[in-house]
Structures are given as structure tokens and as C-alpha cells.
Amino acid sequence: MKVSNSTIALSAESPVAVGGTLKLTETKKASKRATVAYTTSDETIAKVDSATGVVTGVKAGKATITATLTDGKVVAKAEQEVEVKNYVLDTVVQAKTKELTATVKGDTKALKPTDFTVVNTTTKVAYPVYKLAVDAKDATKVTLTLLSDLTDAANYDVTLDGTTKSFKATDGKVSSIAIDPITIPYATETDIKLVSKDANGVVLKELTTTDAVSDANYDFTITTNGNGYTNGSKLYLNKAGDTATAEISYKTGKYDKDGKPEGTIGPNKVTITAVEQSAVNTFAVRVDESGKKFDKAKETNKVALEDNTKYAYFKISNAEGKDVSDAEYNKYTIESSDNTVLMIAGNAISKSGVKLTPIKAGTAYILFKTADGKIVNSVAIDVVAKRTPAALTLDKTAVTVSNASALVGKADVEFDIKLKDQYGDDINVPADASIKLLDKDGKDVTLTDSLVSVNGSTKKVKVRAGVGAKGTYNYTVAYVKDGKTVLAQGLTVTVLAPDATISDDKDTFRLDIDKTAVDTTVKELASDKVAADYEKNITLKIYEQKAGVDYKLDTDNFTVKVYNPDGSVKETLTTTGSAITIKPVTAVASGSAIKVTKNYTPGTYKIVAFKGVKGQDTYKELNASFNVTDTQTIAPDKVVTSVTAGDLRTLVQNAVTVKYGDNTYNGASLDVVSVEAIKNGNTTKITNPSTTVASGDTFVITKLTVLVNVKTDSKNVYAEVTVPVNGAITVK
Description:
By secondary structure, the protein is mainly β. The strands form 17 sheets. Strands 46, 48, 49, 52, 53, 57, 61, 62, 64, 65 and 66 form an 11-stranded mixed beta sheet that branches. It has a 5-stranded mixed beta sheet with strand order 47-55-54-50-51, with no helix packed on it.
């Protein structure tokens, strides 16, 4: 819809799940002095934040979101229909020949097997889901069990509530065989299985000793070594430390021209060890890059061949699920069950991780041993096929720029190339391949032409302003190997030309904001990062336009005011013909440490840029907004409800204990940044930490911010964290 020189359009990239959120994309043209407000046609289906356009799904159905653009007396509206679904299917991977693992947004506890369809994309044959299970710890993880084996290497579509995701089935070729488990509780009959997997870690078969008798491809026997007995498929060992030996092998039944068997694995001998029944600790391992900790590492036990920068991270928990003490960690050592599959750099458990070296595809176990050499637990690590690029996408597939010569280097558009491997992880461009830029005919145009440049090493695309003739240009960003295009994504660039004949007094202005959302959470970065790496800035630029097209970076002085969510002025800035920086998060170095300060609290902030006198014809005003969130909140580890009289800061330090990462803060170590409290039920808030609270008073902490260490290596990083404290505290 177009009204005078003001237009607005809305778009939404995907449906939203009940309880989930979706950010609408809005584009405005011509005058940028306009403000935008969002409304919904049905709040029972979808709610919308009037300022930010963030939609929240309420129940299944469709609602129309309306954006109203107001520019003085000019009003323009745009509508976007948003569909809310009970479920949104994100990913699907094959875990076993009859089992799929899906990630689903929505109320997954209400899912039924018939809600899913699985279809072969070539034959169009449907494979019914007869059972599903929702993970107890992560409700987004759903396991689907099929009636049929999918081992044909075909492509399949999985559909849920109108959303379809695809996966490629296993080819059914055995790459590794292993035993599960290799530690069992003593004096307890336990099922032991032979597990075979393909090169990608998909489980092909799980066989007991009795199952293997009727399967000509597998041999599986267990010898108790006089330490117990077998009962069908179950193994019983008399006491902790007793062992049994399993011998496993796989043969294809195929032979080469010389009569030698092909594809045979084994025979492999695996030791099964009995452990104490009373052991309450649980052992977990995650595999990720260096510089992580267990809680921040990816939830995977998979490492690919040539992944020579991966580390294993450990967590040992007690019966209550809490991390055990360092002294308890020191009671155990680790080793690989098979150094021909996986090597581990050292035997000591380190919370900073232990380097892994994958040798060949297969399954190896990280064995946990006590000081006397007894195996008390084990965790399987799958070594899978070498990572190869499997998907290429661009953050933007259509870009519009101005060719005004005064904009060179000022209004360029830069965005990311996302290259993913077959496991859905980010991957760098291999040394024997490249990222190329192709023209509309598919021919090389060099990685850097006058309008578009592609950097394969940083995986960036840059579209330059201030160059090129007016028109539309089509490119392809391609991943090329051995001279062939393997993956590709189209890119359309539209070049606009401003009308230079328009007089300066008819120019309009555009306020450009590089980001509209900032999470002030301070995350742990690599040890080589400096204070500036922890800062989070918002950059504003004001562009002068002719006929609605950027002409040059404005050189006049605009005054910029940032308004708090309550309408008060947060700060005032003045432009000088260059970028303006708003700093929600700043950081300073202090010796070997870095202190990070959060300057903006959560909420929506309004930006007003203006020059001249309001009410006069020469007055110019531009508006924008940004939203600040802070997900770095932690619950107190303990709150004492009765403390000795003193100032508010001391009372808080004595009453509240906070645990963050590996550190516990209480008393003088609890660095109180700010505190708000209500005393004796009075509605007046106390905000001065030096305020004395007398004996007999009762106070409630309504807001507490403390300083904690988010990094524990040689370069400590201290950040502000909000601690929600519930309950009244009495002063003795």
C-alpha cells in the first residue's frame, strides 16, 4: 500500500509454534521520519509487541498483524497473515534403521504418532510412525519409531503440522561394531548387546548373543572367565572387578577375486567389567572445540575423522544430579578403550577438556577408572566419516543499494555465507575447494568485481554502494570442488540511482540502525580476546536521500536522544557527519582481568534524531527503536532469612549465596553492583547499599545485581548478573 511518499511492507519467514516467537520483517521506503505500531487481529491466536513487531503464538490458527506507519499526516498500513501451529518441525535425523530423532517446537507432550508422515521422495511410499517418545530432559527432542527399516540411502520427507524436513537414509553398510554396555553392576543379570553402526553413526543392528545365532553376518559370544554365568542374553558377574570377555565380528559374506573376504570387521575382543552397585555417580561426556566447559559444550558424543581440534568435556554428578567436588574428580582417570579408533591426550580428567584424536571410523569408549585400576563407568564416542560441506545458504538473497558516488564505503551491505556439513555443523571451506562468484550464466566473475565480493576464508559477501549502473544483477555464490559446482545459492542485487537534479531543500533523510536487538549476556570467549571483544555496540548512521534513494552520508549535525522504556531520556548524542555509537555493554581491561559493564537494562528504547526547531519547516526528525534483553540471570544457591543488623550491602552479602560456574560467592566475595529492597512492607524502594537496616526490620530484595567471574583462566572476565531473590529477610 502506498500513501504519498510513505510505504511499508511486512514479511514472515516461517510459522510460529504455540508459545514460540517470530520477528516480522518490515521495510519502509521514502521518508524515514515515520513511526510504526503493530496490532493483531486476534490476541487469542497471536499476540504482537506494539513496538518491536515480535509475534508470540497463543493457539493454533491464523491472525493478521497490521503495521501502521505514521509520518506526520501521512499514514500507511501493511498486513501480514501469521499462522500459529501447535508444532513446528525444525530438524530430523536418522538414529537407527527404524528410528528418527526430531526437534520440535510446541507442546510435544500432546504429540501422537499419527501426527507425523514419513515419505520416500522418489517412490512416494509412506512409512507409518507407530511409536514416539519425548525426551524427559529436553521436550523439543522427539524419537519416532517406524515399522520398516530405512536402509536404501534414499531421500525422505518428514511432515508435521504442515512443516516438512528431509533426511537421507543410511546405506546399511556396517562401519563399526561395539559392545553396549561394557560396565555392568555386579550380582545383577544385565542384557549385553552387539551394536553395529554405519559411517555416520546410525545404528544398524543391536544383537544379543541369542540373536546373533540366527544372523549369518555376526558372531557374538561371551566368556565369563569363571566369574559368573550367562542366562540367555543376560550376563551375571559375581563381584565388583570381575570381568567377562565378549568376542564380536562382522562379515559380509562377499569375497574378492582371490577368495578373500571383503568388508570383514573383527574378531574383536572386548572386556566387560562389573562395578559396585552402590556407586551413585553418573559420568557424562560432551565433545566440542577447545575453550569450552561441559555445560557450554554441544550435547554430542560424535567426532569426525580429521576433527583434530576437538576436546572431551566431563561432568560427574552425584545422586542429586549436582556436580561433585574437585576432590571427587581427582579420584578417577580416563583412557580410550580402543586407541586404533580414538586416542585421548592424557589420563587425567580436566574440566578444561582433554584433546581427542580420531583415528578411524568406529566406536570407542572413554573408560573411567579408580586409583586401583577398576573401571567404574564408560561413555561411547562415535568416530564418524570425515566432514564434508552439505549445504550452503546466504543470510541475504536479495540486496538493494544506491550507486551514488558519495556512498563508496559508507553504505555497503555485508552478510554471511553459511556452509554446513552433513551433521548440520558449521564448516570451513576445505583447502581443496573454494567459494566462487558466478554470473547469471554460471560463469566465473572473479571473487571481487566492482559490485559484489566474496571472501571464502571468512565466508562473507559484500555488496558495495556507490558503484554500478542502475539495474538488477543476478549472481550465484557457489561451493566448487574439482572444478564442479557442488552447492550454490542465488543472489539478486538491485542498484538504484538517486535523482541528483532534486534540490537539497527537497532531500529526505534515513536513520540506519545496524541492529534492533541486543542481549547483554556476557559469554565466555577464547583466552586471546581483549576487552573490546566483550563490548556490544549499536551503530547509527543518517543518510541524505534524493527521491527516496541514499545520496550521501549526512554531514549536518543531528541531535540524537535515546529514551528509556519509561519515557525518560537515557542519553543525548550529537552527530558529526559520521556514525553514532550507542553502547549497551562496555568493557575495560584491568591488569590481566576484564570488567564488563551493562549500561542498559532490559526493555525497549526509542531513538529520536532531530535537527532544527520543532514546528518550523526546516525541522527534521527520524525515529527508530531497539530492544535489550539479558538472559544472564541465576538463582541464589542459598538465602538466609535472618541476619544481623547493618547496612543493606552487608545484609545482602550475609543473606545471599550465589554459585556461578565453578565459583561460590558469599560475604565479602559477593560483589554487589546494585540492590533494590522494600523495608517493613513500605512501598518506597531502598536503592542505596549504604542504607542502615535496623534490628527488628524486615526487608525484601526486589532486584539484585552482582559481579561474577564468567571465565576462570589467566584472563578473568567479570560481568554483572541479575539474581532473583524471593522471600522476606528479618534483621536480628
